[in-house]
Write a sequence for this structure.
């Protein structure tokens, strides 16, 4: 009598697609809010003017939202700038005022932040292995640091909405190179959802919906529409039963 396992093996030989269907796929790497640190890499007001793959209004919102993620989820943040006494300029005050006591490494020459010993020490001092990163420009400040972090064994999540460069082609080239090195490309909404995991969590809808209303109006207005419908809404003729 054939054993159950031999029958299963025979089934796979007859229907090989069954074996393929049951093979584990690529690992789903999640952001762990207890093992993550947000990094601000050269999101400076002078370098901001180089960004052409987003409108100025979009990108200003995106970079401040990136910084605010650390406050929302109470995770560490490390700030760094490059030659801010020159035309690169300082970080936006919306970021520095949000984190007056955060580690802030002001580099005077290193293009790749990882080449700066104080920055390396600041990252290592967090004790975290996951980096949520954004910088200007995507193809230099974000790319170089992301590749250096990956070489050191860190898991890197690059916020592509909060990194900017001269044009979309350069951004695509940089993102492709990062992805090939194992960097995980995400947008702000995806980062926030992965950190939250569950609307009933803490922070959950009570804190996250106001955050999204501020930094992602498209989603915020969905919540506003629901609020308006519940508090003020009445069904129009013909609407009852449409759902």
């Amino acid at each position: 009598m054939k054993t159950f396992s031999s029958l299963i093996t025979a089934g796979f030989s007859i229907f090989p697609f069954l074996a393929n269907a049951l093979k584990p796929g690529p690992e789903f790497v999640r952001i762990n809010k207890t093992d993550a640190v947000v990094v601000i890499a050269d999101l400076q007001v002078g370098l901001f003017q180089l960004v052409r793959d987003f409108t100025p209004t979009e990108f200003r919102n995106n970079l401040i939202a990136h910084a605010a993620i650390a406050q929302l989820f109470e995770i560490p943040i490390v700030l760094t700038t490059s030659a801010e006494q020159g035309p690169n300029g300082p970080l936006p005050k919306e970021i520095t005022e949000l984190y007056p006591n955060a580690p802030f490494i002001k580099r005077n020459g290193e293009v790749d932040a990882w080449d700066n010993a104080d920055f390396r020490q600041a990252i290592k001092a967090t004790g975290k292995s996951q980096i949520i990163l954004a910088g200007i420009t995507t193809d230099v400040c974000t790319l170089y640091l992301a590749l250096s972090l990956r070489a050191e064994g860190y898991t890197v999540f690059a916020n592509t909405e909060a990194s900017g460069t001269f044009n979309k082609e350069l951004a695509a080239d940089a993102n492709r190179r990062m992805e090939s090195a194992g960097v995980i490309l995400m947008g702000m909404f995806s980062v926030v959802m992965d950190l939250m995991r569950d609307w009933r969590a803490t922070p959950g809808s009570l804190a996250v919906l106001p955050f999204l209303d501020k930094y992602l109006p498209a989603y915020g207005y969905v919540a506003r529409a629901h609020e308006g419908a519940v508090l003020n809404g009445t069904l129009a003729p013909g609407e009852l039963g449409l759902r």
Observations:
- The chain has a mean pLDDT of 93.
- The first helix runs from residue 4 to 14.
- The beta strands are 36-41, 77-82, 104-107, 130-135, 155-159, 184-186.
